[in-house]
């Protein structure tokens, strides 16, 4: 540590990225491992970010005509069997409920009793159970489109888990819609992809690439899967949201049919789309730095913390009143239609420790207020994106008047920083050799940050993709949406390629 | 049906109350049974009521200093074993996860595989799992009080289920708090009871009696359980929310201790409190009538539906514009700090059917708008609490100007109606004979609505309560909170009684 500055998080990103991630999640009090294998506890600060994500997305879903509903946690095994691709994808890793009672057994230990006739699984996703219900709700073309969303917990039994990124239980939303025509269903699939991209960029300040998945990366049972892909600071990709065009696959499996306008019985076309608490992991890996979390103001649980500096008893009440007035003035404003939340941190701990605890939590702004600040009608003001070195004294009134602009400036600056990072780590590659070299660590004995997004021509064979994955741990992240695809030649096979695709290592 | 009016719901409350309930839930599109035994599907209109309940309660919880967090769905069996009373209460009826995979077995059927070393149960309530976490979070008196709430789904395996009232899976919130002293924990328990009573009366228009449960009705593991009890229209009681003072029972079980100000290690005092989607069942049984649901305006998903009467093509666009203007003017207002939602129902179905569909759903107000209304600048206006016979033509402007007052008047009138109903069905009884007579159906061969709330003196022996329950299906609903308890003599034993308690049949 001799040559470099001390950081609030140890190790730094460069030293050990995966461990840095865990330490940021811990230091920012976002989540922790629970005593239940693979399940996490989402702590209040982390959960408040999720509540803000929910609120914004929910408004967007409602603005696009969707309504929320709630479907059962349990799915009978026989439902899974109805859709062949789906069962292959989800039967592997699920929690199976086989009994409905516990009894006291030998040695005072509880044992399962009351075996079920048909085991149930805890939903890993709800296409099959919602499909059964849609089949009842949909009778005629007048019942379409049916646009439903569910906020829920889901369970996928994972062997290796990481907080937010991959946990056995996680929270998400799953949209499920049914339409009279293929065109409408495709339009819905792409509309929700746009909603996700809009939310990621304009609320989470996470730039994303919209595109289509290759066959091998499709949702089990989908005709097409679309996704938004973001670049993390270790240059890997994170799939931040997916939108699936399911064709008539699930309509066939669950018999979702309707009488069309000409009186013919027809199968509906369905879609599903979801984002999860994984987004919070994406936030950390996009914005956090070696001093801890950085939260975009538009989804921050608190926007400002006021740190009163209480040196002498005599000042105390006057300073606190000065702080309370500032809190009140700031909270009387709104920020993009939402309430602004201000904390006054009056804990009896050292000033430095207190400031750093908020820096680690990623609060967008803070002010320190001591007796001299009060006397001169000013505040000592820090921005999380600029760090403690960027602190400066400014007049109280200037601070208050400029507060909304400050939040917008922070939001813009961290989006810009993330976009710059992605752009400077995205390369165009036209040969297989260069491709393999780019994705090969230079020091195989030690983990290091390398790689990035590679834009390359590729002819689309699933076997080829498997080979690249097994050799380099690199996959096609998506075939980007573009109005002007430029054809070329696959760098692996020399066959024709319609457009460049995005290759990367990924979470 | 000869002598009586036709009603939108068949049967009526008087004819068959339990069936009337199911038919209202169905006709109002609140929920339906799912293909999974004991689990319900909460439909969009019912879920929107739940979202409004959540929003209001969540604001109340936050205003009283609580923060939301999220804990695992699964609880290891061994956790339950730690609190003896708790395991007796909850091990009986729970979903047990024993495997984490499905494999293709004989005949192409999926079978459970990957047996777990320790089975998990799906949380029926979270005291034990949250207690384990609290033990880690709480080290010193500075960490207290810890005030946490969780919005979640829970599972209790029920043999007989009824939509909203008793389902295997339901949605709820569970507050869990830890305190340094007994006094503080008791104060918290009672504070949250007040929050529930305030919410029930002032938002749901459901009058409640606040009180303490007797020993036999306590939450398994609690020192005291407090509740709010409401009277349904069949004169039975519904427990609408509970708040538990847990003493140090769960602190002992999970080892939640802290260093107090004098440096001594001390066990914390904890509480828990919850309400669930059961509240929606309570809303139905408090307010709905023989024409369907009645939703209190303060938690209604929509406040007004506009029914355009489109007789001739020529009028259509003009009438729709007239409707849209009204919608816009009404939606520009706010109602108790919340958005107002207005629907325009432009479906191509008969006007009468359309109006009745909204009456059954319980929308607080509706207006019909035809060519003549438009010409005269008026609307034909109906209030759900007054029914279709109360409809009247009034000027458009008068309708708009008075809209908020109208909503308040409806909210007040249904609360008043419910309060009157409870009062006229609450009696004071001073003899055992009269008590038994009051709770005995007059026609044992046919279900009938009888009984009510009985205020009687009672000396408190658990065996006596069991006897009354087995003979009459009547229990002590609560020992009401009162500042001036009037002592008396138990009507069953002649022993002294501190105050009258509330007896009733219940859900």
Query: Total number of β-strand segments of chain A?
Result: 27
The profile of the biggest β sheet of chain A is:
11 strands, mixed
Mean pLDDT of chain A: 95
- What pair of chains forms the biggest interface? A-B, 65 and 65 residues
Structural class of chain A: alpha+beta
Low-confidence stretches of chain A: none
Radius of gyration of chain A: 26 Å
Helix coverage percent of chain A? 25-40%
- Looking at how many chains there are and whether they match, the oligomeric state comes to homodimer
Strand content of chain A: 25-35%
What is the overall number of helices of chain A? 15
- Separation of termini of chain A? 30 Å
Task: Explain what the structure shows.
The structure is a homodimer of 507-residue chains. Chain A is α+β, with helices and mostly antiparallel strands and 507 residues long. Helices cover 33% and strands 27% of the residues of chain A. Chain A contains 15 helices and 27 strands. Chain A has an 11-stranded mixed β-sheet with strand order 3-7-8-14-11-10-9-24-27-23-22, sandwiched between helices. Chain A is globular and about 80 Å long. In chain A, 49% of the residues are buried. Chains A and B meet through strand 2, helix 2, strand 3, strand 4 and helix 3 of A and strand 2, helix 2, strand 3, strand 4 and helix 3 of B. Strand 5 of chain A pairs antiparallel with strand 5 (96-104) of chain B, so a sheet runs across the interface.
How does the SSE layout of this entry go?
Two copies of one chain form a homodimer.
Chain A: H1 17-27, E1 31-33, E2 40-42, H2 44-63, E3 67-68, E4 74-76, H3 77-80, H4 84-90, E5 96-104, E6 110-122, H5 127-137, E7 146-155, E8 169-179, H6 182-202, E9 209-212, E10 224-231, E11 237-245, H7 249-254, E12 257-259, E13 265-267, E14 269-276, H8 278-287, E15 304-308, H9 316-331, E16 334-335, E17 338-339, E18 342-344, H10 351-361, E19 365-369, H11 371-375, E20 378-383, E21 392-395, H12 396-401, H13 403-424, E22 426-428, H14 432-438, E23 453-457, H15 462-472, E24 475-480, E25 488-489, E26 496-497, E27 500-504
Parallel strand pairs in A: 3-7, 15-18, 15-19, 22-23
Antiparallel strand pairs in A: 1-2, 4-6, 5-6, 7-8, 8-14, 9-10, 9-24, 10-11, 11-14, 12-13, 16-17, 19-20, 20-21, 23-27, 24-27, 25-26
Helix pairs in contact in A: 2-6
């Amino acid at each position: 540590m001799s040559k470099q500055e001390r950081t609030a998080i140890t190790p730094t990103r460069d030293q050990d990225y995966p461990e840095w991630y865990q330490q940021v999640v811990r230091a920012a009090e976002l989540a922790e491992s629970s005593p239940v294998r693979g399940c996490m506890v989402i702590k209040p600060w982390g959960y408040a970010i999720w509540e803000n994500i929910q609120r914004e997305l929910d408004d967007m879903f409602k603005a696009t005509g969707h309504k929320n509903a709630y479907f059962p946690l349990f799915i009978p095994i026989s439902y899974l069997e109805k859709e062949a691709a789906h069962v292959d994808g989800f039967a592997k890793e699920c929690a199976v409920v086989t009994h409905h009672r516990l009894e006291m057994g030998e040695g005072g230990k509880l044992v399962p009793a009351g075996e079920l006739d048909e085991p149930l699984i805890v939903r890993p996703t709800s296409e099959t159970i919602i499909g059964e219900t849609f089949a009842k709700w949909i009778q005629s073309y007048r019942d379409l489109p049916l646009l439903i969303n569910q906020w829920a917990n889901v369970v996928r039994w994972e062997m290796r888990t990481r907080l937010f990124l991959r946990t056995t239980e996680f929270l998400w939303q799953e949209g499920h819609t049914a339409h009279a025509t293929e065109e409408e269903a495709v339009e819905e699939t792409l509309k929700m992809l746009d909603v996700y991209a809009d939310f990621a960029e304009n609320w989470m300040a996470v730039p994303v690439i919209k595109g289509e998945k290759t066959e091998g990366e499709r949702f089990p049972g989908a005709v097409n899967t679309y996704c938004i892909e973001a670049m993390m600071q270790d240059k890997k990709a994170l799939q931040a949201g997916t939108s699936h065009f399911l064709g008539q696959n699930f309509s066939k499996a669950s018999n979702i049919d309707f009488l069309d306008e000409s009186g013919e019985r027809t199968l509906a076309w369905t879609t599903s789309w979801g984002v999860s608490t994984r987004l919070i992991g994406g936030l950390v890996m996009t914005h956090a730095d070696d001093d801890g979390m950085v939260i975009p103001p538009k989804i921050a649980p608190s926007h400002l913390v006021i740190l009163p500096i209480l040196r002498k008893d005599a000042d105390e009440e006057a300073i606190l009143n000065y702080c309370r007035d500032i809190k009140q003035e700031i909270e009387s404003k709104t920020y993009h239609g939402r309430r602004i939340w201000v904390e006054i941190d009056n804990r009896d701990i050292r000033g430095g420790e207190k400031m750093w605890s908020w820096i680690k939590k990623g609060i967008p702004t803070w002010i320190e207020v001591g007796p001299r600040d009060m006397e001169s009608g000013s505040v000592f003001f820090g921005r999380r994106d600029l760090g403690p070195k960027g602190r400066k004294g400014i007049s109280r009134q200037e601070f208050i008047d400029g507060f909304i602009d400050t939040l917008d400036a922070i939001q813009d600056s961290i989006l810009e920083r993330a976009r710059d990072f992605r752009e400077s780590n995205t390369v165009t590659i036209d040969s297989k050799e260069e491709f393999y070299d780019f994705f090969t660590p230079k020091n195989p004995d030690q983990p290091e940050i390398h790689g990035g997004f590679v834009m390359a021509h590729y002819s689309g064979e699933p076997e080829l993709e498997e080979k690249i994955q097994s050799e380099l741990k690199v996959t096609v992240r998506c075939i980007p949406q573009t109005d002007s695809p430029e054809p070329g030649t696959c760098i692996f096979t020399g066959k024709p390629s319609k457009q460049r695709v995005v290759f990367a290592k990924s979470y």
